[in-house]
UniProtKB/TrEMBL annotation:
Name of the protein in its database record: Catalase
InterPro entries the UniProt entry points to: Catalase_sf
GO molecular function annotation: heme binding
Species, as recorded: Chryseobacterium rhizoplanae
Length: 335
């Protein structure tokens, strides 16, 4: 294989128009989070994406013994402690038996002293339908406004959705949508999970895949997702392979084109994630809703790469700051 491409900050840079749209978007994120308790009818402020928590658990990352030499400096311990959050991508929390199959598997990695090394919010769909930063910001702003202002913002939101359709019709997108629909009723822990965008690994650029081992996709068919997940994790150990792809060439492994899969970059196993049975965290503990899985809080050499990823940095900051401020006030009232 050729040498991996090196990270360059130019991958992340926004132009002036994009920066202006981002400021407008941040305002709607704060407005959404401030009103999120009434939008979802809960007694706390929610996230403005992946609002619904199914469960949180403690886990362990076990490093692959024969990891390639070039990767060894980043995996210099036999194991690392994890905090894991399982979620649904919807902005609004609904107590329905069937949620759309858009799941999150967010992983927080700690060092031996309990300090944060990295956050990786993984999802069960490997691609993102929008490459244009401006289009994404306009759509996300319109969606936030719709949830806040309801019907008066319906037409602007639909207009932005229509603009996204062309970029959502790549061969890779269509193939993965069909695959997801075929698995829509499968158990949440039977899905593969992906980083979608790229991340740094030192000077290298990677994508991540989490692939579960020996999980029956028919588990908990007649239960709500939250119940089936908790019942499984109380009774079974869960293990998944962690695989990465390296970026060698922007044509085959594009950083800022998220609606196509990387090709000509083999998956490399770097370790396993394990959740031993009965490792669930208390779902009633308010501190779990204060957890942040912002990948930009990671050590600098593990942070996300790319323009769409850069937007997530600002969005996470606004969402977390607003959510924590409100929830700490609510927690103070209830204590």
């Amino acid at each position: 294989m050729p040498n991996p491409l090196k990270y360059n900050k130019k991958f992340d840079e926004l132009n002036e128009e994009e920066k202006k749209l981002l400021e407008l978007n941040k305002k709607t994120i704060a407005d959404f989070v401030e009103q999120s308790s009434s939008i979802s009818d809960v007694n706390y402020a929610t996230r403005n994406a992946h609002a619904k928590t199914y469960a949180a658990a403690k886990g362990t990352f076990w490093t692959e013994p024969d990891i390639p030499e070039s990767l060894q400096p980043f995996f210099d311990k036999e194991k690392f402690d994890l905090t894991i959050r399982f979620s649904n991508a919807q902005l609004k929390i609904k107590n329905s038996k069937k949620d759309i199959p858009a799941y999150g598997f967010a992983v927080q990695i700690k060092d031996e002293n309990g300090g944060l090394l990295a956050n990786y919010p993984l999802v069960n769909f490997p691609l993102f339908p929008i490459n244009s930063v401006s289009t994404f910001l306009k759509l996300f702003t319109a969606i936030n406004k719709f949830y806040i202002k309801k019907w008066s913002s319906l037409f602007p939101m639909l207009l932005q959705i229509i603009k996204v359709i062309p970029s959502a019709l790549t061969g890779d997108m269509i193939r993965n949508i069909i695959k997801l629909m075929g698995k829509r009723n499968d158990f949440i822990l039977s899905f593969d999970y992906y980083s979608v965008g790229a991340y740094r690994l030192g000077d290298q650029i990677i994508k991540i895949k989490l692939s579960p081992k020996n999980v029956d996709k028919h588990t908990g068919k007649k239960q709500q997702i939250k119940d089936s997940l908790k019942n499984y994790l109380q009774a079974h150990d869960f293990t998944a392979d962690i695989l990465i792809q390296l970026c060698y060439d922007l044509h085959d492994q594009p950083v800022n084109k998220l609606n196509v899969e990387w090709k000509n970059s083999p998956f490399i196993k770097i370790g396993e994630v394990k959740i031993t049975k009965d490792s669930l965290l208390d779902s009633r503990d308010c501190s779990n809703e204060l957890l942040s899985f912002n990948p930009f809080e990671s050590k600098i050499f593990f942070q996300p790469v790319g323009k769409i990823q850069k937007l997530r940095d600002e969005a996470y900051k606004v969402s977390v700051q607003t959510r924590r401020k409100i929830n700490k006030l609510l927690h103070g009232k209830n204590s």
